[in-house]
């Protein structure tokens, strides 16, 4: 497994749990040192235990020696980053190609080179060209095996996936049966669980990941726009979402109004898909609009909070609960909090924030003036306004009276709809949420 980041570490560890010997190659010295010492450099519930058990069993190792890891391997998975390229939104595949070239130089015997990273259509063909050019003598196949891991639920997603997608070069003379057999063997435990494993062509597999993530992002953006409409016409978005979600053709997931989607996948993958469409001469206009609407929504959330404070937050103390783009992760990549808190800071607010897992990752990307608090109640100390940006479960059970004792003001902007409007109204709060009928503070 080339790359000990989120995808590589979770995937490699889960393969080891299946009983496979896995060597994870990590060239970042700090991350490698942490892994060797048993410290997990990412936040993922349950991963520390699984890593420790498989290291102790001898099935999982960490190192920076590419040749030692690749030598004798049946399959080499490339799980390095593919960040958005500045300017055009295309995925930067330079790390993938560099890793592949290194693999080609040290591989011995027949090897299946598998992209686990999310890569644009055509990457597999380019990988094959690079390998042939680097090692004309090497016997190899290229495969695409995109990951569908949700942060905070990644282990379950790997062990009990909705599906596994494996793409190979179906036009290769002689076929790619050997590659399919090796990958089928790796995923054999899932066959026993009757999880669907889909074999397809390279281009199809590469496109599936982008199409899946972009559809989900579009679904989030759809319910966010319906949420705005609900506020205008006096409807309740929770009831709308619940009712349309009961339609089997639609499904209930990803129908929760929010300040906008963020994280490591949806923003990057929607931009990449629009770039793929433009380059192919077949623009995906729905996704182009999804990207634009989502970016504007995050800005609108900051403006909404300022309007809630009668148009001026200068000198006010704002207590913020949740910073990460979603609960059960420390990931701050493209989190709504980055945009919202930057607006509030520039408007002169004093920000006190707490997140159960994301405080350290938040510091480099949030305004330097933000005060990071020891717990949620500390963040609310003396606050004029309370803002909920991430729906961590521990926030849901807070008693209104406890919140009232900590706060100076009585305004709550619940941008995740974690509390009941009537309960907060009766407790004397001026409360706003997303897509639910306005609640006027009790007199």
From TrEMBL:
UniProt domain UDP-glucose/GDP-mannose dehydrogenase C-terminal: residue ranges: 319-421
Domain of life: Bacteria
Stored Gene3D superfamilies: Cytochrome c1, transmembrane anchor, C-terminal, NAD(P)-binding Rossmann-like Domain
Class of this enzyme: oxidoreductase
Family of this protein: Belongs to the UDP-glucose/GDP-mannose dehydrogenase family.
UniProt keyword annotations, A-Z: NAD, Oxidoreductase
EC number: 1.1.1.22
SUPFAM superfamilies associated with the record: 6-phosphogluconate dehydrogenase C-terminal domain-like (SSF48179), NAD(P)-binding Rossmann-fold domains (SSF51735), UDP-glucose/GDP-mannose dehydrogenase C-terminal domain (SSF52413)
SMART domains linked: UDPG_MGDP_dh_C
Upper taxonomic lineage: Bacteria, Pseudomonadati, Pseudomonadota, Alphaproteobacteria, Acetobacterales
UniProt-recorded name of the protein: UDP-glucose 6-dehydrogenase
Pfam family membership, one: UDPG_MGDP_dh
InterPro entries: 6-PGluconate_DH-like_C_sf (IPR008927), NAD(P)-bd_dom_sf (IPR036291), UDP-Glc/GDP-Man (IPR017476), UDP-Glc/GDP-Man_DH_C (IPR014027), UDP-Glc/GDP-Man_DH_C_sf (IPR036220), UDP-Glc/GDP-Man_DH_dimer (IPR014026), UDP-Glc/GDP-Man_DH_N (IPR001732), UDPglc_DH_bac (IPR028357)
Catalysed transformations (reactions): UDP-alpha-D-glucose + 2 NAD(+) + H2O = UDP-alpha-D-glucuronate + 2 NADH + 3 H(+)
Pathway: Nucleotide-sugar biosynthesis; UDP-alpha-D-glucuronate biosynthesis; UDP-alpha-D-glucuronate from UDP-alpha-D-glucose: step 1/1
NCBIfam families tied to this protein: NDP-sugDHase
């Amino acid at each position: 497994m080339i790359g000990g980041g989120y995808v590589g570490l979770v995937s490699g560890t889960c393969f080891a749990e299946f009983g496979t010997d896995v060597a994870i190659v990590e060239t970042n010295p700090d991350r490698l040192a942490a892994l060797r010492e048993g410290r997990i450099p990412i936040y993922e519930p349950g991963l520390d235990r699984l890593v420790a058990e498989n290291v102790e069993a001898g099935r999982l190792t960490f190192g920076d020696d590419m040749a030692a890891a690749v030598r004798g391997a049946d399959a080499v998975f490339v799980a390095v980053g593919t960040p958005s390229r500045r300017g055009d939104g295309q995925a930067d595949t330079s790390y993938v190609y560099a890793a592949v070239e290194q693999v080609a130089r040290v591989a011995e015997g027949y090897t299946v080179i598998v992209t686990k990273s999310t890569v644009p259509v055509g990457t597999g063909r380019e990988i094959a060209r690079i390998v042939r050019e680097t090692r004309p003598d090497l016997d190899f196949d290229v495969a695409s095996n995109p990951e569908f891991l949700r942060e905070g639920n990644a282990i379950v997603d790997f062990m009990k996936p909705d599906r596994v997608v494996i793409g190979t070069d179906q036009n290769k003379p002689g076929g790619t049966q050997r590659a399919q057999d090796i990958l089928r063997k790796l995923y054999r435990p899932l066959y026993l669980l009757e999880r669907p494993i889909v074999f397809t062509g390279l281009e199809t597999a590469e496109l599936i990941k982008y199409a899946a993530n972009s559809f989900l992002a579009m679904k989030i953006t759809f319910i966010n726009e319906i949420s705005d409409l609900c506020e205008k016409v006096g409807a309740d978005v929770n009831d709308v979402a619940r009712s349309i979600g009961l339609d089997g053709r639609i499904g209930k997931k990803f129908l929760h109004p929010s300040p906008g989607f963020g994280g490591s996948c949806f923003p990057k993958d929607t931009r990449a898909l629009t770039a793929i469409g433009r380059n192919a001469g077949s623009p995906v206009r729905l996704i182009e609009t999804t990207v634009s609407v989502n970016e504007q929504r995050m800005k609108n959330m900051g403006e909404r909070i300022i309007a809630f404070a009668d148009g001026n937050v200068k000198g006010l103390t704002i207590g913020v609960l949740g910073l990460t783009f979603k609960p059960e992760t420390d990931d701050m990549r493209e989190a709504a909090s980055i945009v919202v808190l930057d607006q509030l800071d520039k408007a002169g607010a004093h920000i006190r924030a707490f997140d159960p897992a994301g405080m350290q990752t938040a510091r480099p990307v949030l305004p330097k003036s933000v005060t990071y608090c020891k717990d949620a109640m500390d963040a609310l100390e003396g606050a004029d306004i309370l803002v909920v940006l991430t729906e961590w479960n521990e926030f849901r059970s807070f008693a209104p009276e406890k919140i009232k004792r900590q706060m100076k003001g009585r305004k709550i902007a619940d941008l995740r709809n974690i509390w009941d409007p009537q309960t907060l109204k009766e407790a004397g709060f001026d409360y706003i949420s997303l897509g639910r009928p306005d609640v006027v503070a009790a007199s």
